[in-house]
Input
Amino acid sequence: MKRIPVKNLAIAMRVTMVVMVAILTVFIYYYSKGYRINIHSQEITKTGILNVKADPFWSDIYVDGENIGKSPKSKTLSIGTHNVEIKKDGYSTWAKEVEIFDERSTIITPWLLLKEPEKTTAWESKGIFQKLWVDTSSQTALVLIKDSNTTYSLWAYRTTVPFLSFSDNKVKLLTTESEITDVKLSPDGGRALITIKDSLGVQTSYIADTMSQLNTASAQQIDLTKYSGYTISWAENSDYIIFDSSIDIISYDISLKTSVILEKKSNGDKYIWTTDTNGYFYLVHHNENDNSNVNEYSIRQMKLDGTNVSETLSEIYFQKDTSYIDYYRTNDYTCIPCTNSPENTKTVGEITKILVSPKAMGIYIQTTEASYWYNTSTKRYFLVSPYPSEFVEYSHDYDKFIYKNEYGFFTFTLVKDELDPTEQLGSKSIKNADNAQNIHWINGSASVIYSENNSIYVSDVDGANKTQVISSDTFKGYLLGSVKEELFMLETDAEEMLSVNKYTIN
Output
């Protein structure tokens, strides 16, 4: 047998190694890009990653009917849509079609709910339920109880207690034989404006701290008789009360017990105003202009004590011709930022309402024809909806909000999560929630909660996985706990005695 020279063999081995390294490098490159070899079909396919972070942990994950393990888990899948189910004994099944994207990770955070929530009684009243007031965050409730034929008591119940506070969750604000004619709870639930009418018909109004008992002999009073004909409301920061009439708009400082006229009104003018959590007042002015095709506005701001007056936004233009917005009602529109000008076809109508949020860094603008978002940082506008829509609530991180109109409930994403390829800027419908009431975000989850037909439901933010967690013919309202797993129901028994029941739902 003829021997191969050692030199030639070494060269051949080097070449083979180079080729193998090259093949391996190419393989690693394309593998990292998500390419996979399908042995059965002998085809090369592209893949992405499904990243499951379910609550509770160690829930079983099924993809297209196959059990792939327990959460948390990442799994390489072919691009396209897959049926994903998350299951755990004692919990309702979570199921959704999930899209996997090329070379990207799709993160899902399913939140499973107990089939039988754990119930404990947090508080029981000793009298008959009369009336309920709840703050905007649904974490504080004021409850009017009839103790006897002659006496009433007003209670405050909070699901959260401030740090270093020695107060209990429940506080009896007052007991009285007089009629409590009106209660206005501040947005944060920390204060209440309480009006009591005695046997002689004399009405006295008190400003109460909902964390301590109200002593009517020494409590702060406010004379509302001179504000007859005024609409009374709390400012968003709960340090001021706003009085609004056809004559003027007045702010009342709770601490200093002083009032300031914020705006004198003229006959025939429309006054659109709002306040924010930082203690500012905003007023919309309808400006005169020579362009008959547009409504021109500006927004003036000042502190609620009347100081630091400035124009925060000027030359806001909205088209009078509704044909512009009619186009967006019948055609899909892309949620992209736009400038504001007399020629802008997206901004249409007369302003009817504004809401200013320093935390979300923007202004929600509702008109007679549509709804908009103005980003105060980028100075750009977004068309939220081609219909006039009522703002509902910001998410806890202020990157989304809920709004509603005649077509249902929707979410609007302000800030896109770059790690979530399924998320886009703009509006998404909350399906299966047309009859929802008292809708809220659930902190720490991608879910919403709401009441409907004497039941409490939780669903994904897009409306999928709608689950009935509690049903009761006697519940009067609900409060959210300090953690997402807790839900507080205010329920009455056959004798109309009220109890606050805590349900652990996850």
In short: Confidence is low (pLDDT under 50) at residues 26-31.
